[in-house]
Fold each of these.
Amino acid sequence: EINFFFPKQQTLAVIKPDAMEEHKEEILEAIRGRGFSVTQLKETELSREIAEEFYKEHKGKPFFSQLVDFMCRGPCAMLVLTKENAVEEWRTMMGPTDPEKAKETSPQSLRARFAADILHNSVHGSSNEQHAREKIYFIFGDIGTPTELNSCKETDQ
Ligand code: RTP
Ligand code: MG
């Protein structure tokens, strides 16, 4: 018998303040329903400083200060999602940044269902593996790799 091994991947997901009151449970259900494991979960209100650092890639863009204000206006849920191909699958599940576009191209996506506009768009997800590692470390510190198998190193013994 052959055992195929598909390595797990981790991504950082955030339920943004606009979605926390009304849609948190539905979003968590949808996440688990797609086969993600929620391996870390913490609810927190971001300070301006943390929100600015979290979105530092967007510093200087016209929407940056609005984005930071929005992210600080109430609690967020920060999640580590673990699954094969988690980074890409979570991005697909979120849908495009702008909910108007999401409604056209992916009406089942979370942003199509829950987002009000391009700024208040309900969820965040890391855009690549490097970004995921960096943001997970920033939010949760050193929580290790998703599976032991994944981090197994070959030795000479
Ligand atoms: P995210 O980083 O939150 O997962 O979203 P994303 O990759 O789909 O979009 P990104 O370009 O990284 O933008 C980050 C967040 O900034 C807000 N935004 N507002 N007013 C605007 O034109 C505008 N553009 C982006 C959104 O909250 C977006 O998710
Ligand atoms: Mg982004």
Amino acid sequence: EEVINKIAAGEVINRPSAVVKELVENSIDAESDKIEIRVKNGGKDLIQIIDNGQGMSKEDAKLALQRHATSKIKEANDLFSIRSLGFRGEALPSIAAISRMEIKTRTEDKLGGTLLKIVGGKLQKAKDVGCPVGTNIVVRDLFFNTPVRYKYLKTTSTEMSKISDIINRLALAYPEISFKLSHNQRKLLESPGNGNRLDGILSIYSKEVAKNMIKVEHEDKYMKVNGYVAKPNINRASRKHQSFFINRRYIKSRILSEAVSEAYHTLLGKNRYPIVILTIKLNPILVDVNVHPTKMEVNFSREKEIFTVVRDGVKKALDKSDL
Ligand code: ADP
Ligand code: MG
């Protein structure tokens, strides 16, 4: 069991940003509207996620540390049920297996909460504590018992920029959640969480960028595209500033980037890319989506339809605005 956890962990939890992504996604799933992420030394020393979500009972928290213990029902409308098969109910035990973890959690219907301490996957302590409703997870000394993995970590600033990147994108996708990120006690981001997408964009980019974003709203028979794209004068030298979300999960997709490029067509010079934040809603029954858990790279069936709806949505937005 312990060995399996370590192997599973190595495959998907390959760096601090993967820990952050999994834990923050859990906080989002628990319906938090405030999520604070504290990081020390690029996540190598400490990652702490504090949310105000549903929390867990003592029994559920203990259960969550076992493999494949997921409270999330695999419904047909869970787009990522395929991904889920790969990694459902594995994040928490995987991370616990390769770190020193502390979980403090409380549900609304209880006056007190639970504290669990786990070292290298072994539960060392479980006791009652006073704590606010929600979940507070501390992950210390990541990879302390998998030295090979530790050796492959990049510099603190590289690891930290990967973490920032993920939180920035999540803040863009979930404007109704307030995200706060700090590194070595220095605040890097605080998104307002007021539901306004442009305010979210403003907390990450400059005023200049926020001022020059165009709203995208488009749908066809199968799917809906919403979000913002930048006017052609606001562009970047890479696709790093293009974020796509399918049914609110961040994904990477070359196809969708290409759809955007095609919509801009002659509006942009060679190797220039607009800032893009697009959310695609679709009925998961219609597409077969396959996500590689670490790469977040998606394979679709019906690629062509998705390509078309994104291209047309962006085109329509560009046509309507005065550039
Ligand atoms: P999954 O998210 O696929 O269910 P995880 O290993 O990431 O698997 O989490 C296991 C379970 O632990 C979740 O299904 C959920 O019930 C519980 N859990 C994890 N993190 C939180 C959190 N921040 N708030 C409430 N429950 C949580
Ligand atoms: Mg999870």
